[in-house]
Amino acid sequence: GERQAEWQLPLEEAGWHVNSGKVGAxxxxxxxxxxRLGGHVxxxxxxxGVQIGQEIWLxxxxxxxxxxxxxxxSQPIPVTGASKAEQTKLQSYLAPLQHPQLVLxxxxxxxxxxxxxxxxxxxxxxx
Length: 127
Hints:
The protein is mainly β. The protein has helices spanning 43-46, 84-94; strands at 15-16, 28-32, 55-59, 65-73, 77-78, 101-108, 115-126. Strands 1, 2, 3, 4, 5, 6 and 7 form a seven-stranded mixed beta sheet that branches.
């Protein structure tokens, strides 16, 4: 009777959610990555290495660099047994927004997969 999300992620790199926006668009771009498996691409997130105000640069297929600035780091959300409010919060990170934003999703803590953790960044520039 409980809802649980399960994503199929590449092991050595982060994976773009195909139902989310594209880099630089007026939509939310959602990217997930492992923090313990394969290339550990999102280990710094699970280890607390991302901070509010930090820039994240994404490069699109044409080579343009889009700059996103971290505006939120979620509280850990339990994979199982999450409250209704926590489930709603997790869904808000996955919702299609008409706002130029980046959402990075991974597991937490750095030694386990018992929770989800989200980093939200707003589009602030282009190089």
